[in-house]
Automatic annotation (TrEMBL):
The keyword Oxidoreductase does not apply. Residues 453-481 are annotated as: Disordered. Residues 266-445 form the Carbohydrate kinase FGGY C-terminal domain. Signal peptide: none annotated. Pfam families: FGGY_C, FGGY_N. It comes from Blastococcus aggregatus. This is Xylulokinase.
C-alpha cells in the first residue's frame, strides 16, 4: 500500500502514450462490477465482469457490504492479469451507481453497510425536502426520490444516530470503493455524483446548506468535491503503484464513452435513462426531470425510468421465452400488437411518466391475442415510456439521430420500435461496459494522456410510420384500454 505522502499528488506526465500502456476503468454497478483495460488507441484490450447481489434485510431495503465491491474488483483484476502481461498499467478510474449512501470513518472504513438507490426506507423523510422554501427546493433542480443520499442520511440520522456520529464522511459507491483501495486517503467525491444526492445546489454549483440542514447532519459530513480526473493516491496493481483518479458517476461516464455531447442518448438496461447532454440547468421546485453535472464541467438533463429491461425480464418469465425468443416473437407480430397494450411500471416509477403507485401489465387483450402480440406489446410499452420521457426533456427538433446504448437495445426489433416511437433515426453504439470505458478515459486524462475510445456503430435505423403503432401510442398515452 502507498504511503500517506502519495495522497493528493499529481502523477508524472512522462511523455506520449505507447501501445503497451493501458488505462483501467471499473464500474461499480447495482448487480455487478465491470472492468476494462483501454490502450492508447482507445481499444478495449481486456475486460472482466463479476456479478453480485445486494441484500434485502427487510422489505423496501437495499444494502451491500463494501467488501463485496472490493472482492469483485480484485477478482476482475486477477482475471485480466494474463491479458495485461507485458503492458504498463498507467492509471485506474472508477465509475459507480448513483445516489448510494456509504458512511465511513476517518480511515475510509464503512461504519455500516452501504444503502443503495433502490432502498425506499426514507420515503417519509422526503417531507423535509417538500418543506423547504420554494427557492431552495428549486435550486436542487431534481425530483424527490427516497433512495437518494440526502433522504437516506436523514433516515439514518433519526434511526441510527450512532452510525452518523461515528462517521467522518458520507461517500457515494465509487468513492467508497476508492477509499477501500486507498486507506487513509482523502474522502472526496466529484460533481457528477454530488449533484445526484438531493444535497447539491445546482444553481450555485455547491453543497446546499438548506438541504443539508433538512437531512439533519453536520455540513462537515459531506465530502470535498474534486475533479474526476484528479489523482488522489496510488494502489498496487500488477506489481506497480498505479495512480487512482477520483472518477465519476456511471451515467455521465457512459455519455463520455459514447461521445454524445448534444442531441439525445437512450440507455436501456434494467431501467432506462433518456439523456440530453449539454442541457442548461432548469431550476424547478417540483422538477420532473433530473439535472446532473457531467464529468467535463457541464450539465445534462435526464428522464429516468425504473422499468425497462426489468419489465421485459418479467414478461419473458411469464411467457416462458428466452431473450432471443421474446424479441423474435415481438418482431413477428404486427405494429400495434393487435390492440394489446403493455404498461411496464411493475415497480412504480420515480419520474413524470408514471407515479410511485402506478403498476404495470397488459390491457386490450381479446380471445384471439397471441403470445407474439403480448411480446410485441411489451416491447412497444417500454418504447412508449421512453418516448414520453424524451418528450419531457424538450429535445430540439434538429437532432440528427438518437444514440442507443445498453444491453436492452441490441435486438433489431427494439431499435426499430424506438425509431418509430421517437420519430427519429436511431443508431446503436454497441459499447460493452460504457461506464467503465468512460472511467478509463478519466484515468488517462488524469495522467496526461488523451485517449479517445473506439466507437464501432451499428447501422442507422430510420423510423417507419405506421397508423397501427400511432393508434397504440395514443391509447397508451391516455390510458385507454
Amino acid at each position: 500500500m502507498p504511503s500517506s505522502a502519495s495522497w493528493g499528488t499529481t502523477a508524472a506526465r512522462d511523455g506520449p502514450v505507447v501501445t503497451e500502456a493501458v488505462f483501467l476503468g471499473a464500474d461499480v454497478g447495482t448487480s455487478g462490477l465491470k472492468l476494462v483495460a483501454l490502450d492508447g488507441a482507445g481499444l478495449v484490450v481486456a475486460q472482466a465482469e463479476r456479478e453480485y447481489a445486494y441484500d434485502r434485510p427487510e422489505p423496501g431495503r437495499a444494502e451491500i457490504d463494501v467488501r463485496v465491491w472490493r472482492a469483485a474488483l480484485d477478482a476482475a483484476l486477477a482475471e485480466v492479469g494474463a491479458a495485461l502481461s507485458g503492458r504498463r498499467v498507467r492509471a485506474l478510474g472508477l465509475s459507480g451507481q448513483m445516489h448510494g449512501t456509504v458512511l465511513v470513518d476517518a480511515a475510509g472504513r464503512p461504519v455500516r453497510p452501504a444503502v443503495l438507490w433502490p432502498d425506499a426506507r426514507a420515503a417519509a423523510e422526503l417531507d423535509r425536502w417538500r418543506g423547504l422554501p420554494d427557492g431552495e427546493r428549486a435550486a436542487l433542480a431534481n425530483p424527490l426520490a427516497a433512495g437518494m443520499t440526502g433522504p437516506v442520511l436523514a433516515w439514518l440520522a433519526a434511526h441510527e444516530p450512532g452510525a452518523v456520529a461515528g462517521a467522518a464522511a458520507v461517500l457515494l459507491p465509487k468513492d467508497a470503493l476508492r477509499a477501500d483501495l486507498l486507506p487513509g486517503g482523502p474522502l472526496v467525491t466529484d460533481r457528477s455524483d454530488a449533484s445526484a444526492t438531493l444535497l447539491w445546489d445546482v444553481v450555485a454549483d455547491r453543497w446546499s446548506g438548506a438541504a443539508t440542514e433538512a437531512a439533519g447532519v453536520p455540513a462537515d459530513l459531506l465530502p470535498d468535491v474534486r475533479p474526476g480526473t484528479e489523482v488522489v493516491g496510488t494502489t498496487p496493481i500488477a506489481g506497480a503503484e498505479v495512480p487512482v483518479v477520483v472518477g465519476g458517476a456511471d451515467t455521465p461516464l457512459a455519455l463520455l464513452a459514447a461521445g454524445t455531447t448534444a442531441g439525445l442518448q437512450v440507455n436501456l438496461g434494467t431501467g432506462a435513462q433518456v439523456l440530453r447532454p449539454g442541457a442548461a440547468p432548469r431550476p424547478a421546485a417540483d422538477a420532473v426531470t433530473h439535472t446532473y453535472a457531467d464529468v467535463t464541467g457541464g450539465w445534462y438533463a435526464m428522464a429516468a425510468l425504473q422499468n425497462g429491461g426489468s419489465a421485459w425480464a418479467w414478461v419473458r418469465g411469464v411467457l416462458g421465452l428466452s431473450w432471443a425468443e421474446l424479441f423474435d416473437a415481438a418482431a413477428a407480430a404486427a405494429p400495434g400488437a393487435g390492440g394489446a397494450l403493455f404498461r411496464p411500471f411493475l415497480t412504480g416509477e420515480r419520474g413524470g411518466v408514471a407515479g410511485a403507485d402506478d403498476r404495470g401489465g397488459w390491457t386490450g387483450l381479446g380471445a384471439g391475442t397471441t403470445r407474439a402480440e403480448l411480446a410485441r406489446a411489451a416491447v412497444e410499452g417500454v418504447a412508449f415510456a421512453v418516448g414520453a420521457a424524451a418528450r419531457s426533456l424538450d429535445v430540439p427538433g434538429g437532432v440528427e439521430h438518437v444514440v442507443l446504448t445498453g444491453g436492452g437495445v441490441r435486438a433489431p426489433v427494439v431499435q426499430q420500435v424506438l425509431a418509430d416511437v421517437l420519430g427519429r433515426p436511431v443508431r446503436h453504439l454497441p459499447l460493452r461496459s460504457a461506464s467503465a470505458i468512460g472511467a478509463a478515459v478519466l484515468a488517462a486524462c488524469g495522467v496526461g494522456a488523451d485517449v479517445e475510445p473506439q466507437r464501432p456503430a451499428g447501422p442507422l435505423v430510420e423510423p417507419r410510420p405506421d397508423p397501427r403503432l400511432a393508434e397504440a401510442a395514443r391509447r397508451w398515452a391516455d390510458g385507454s384500454r
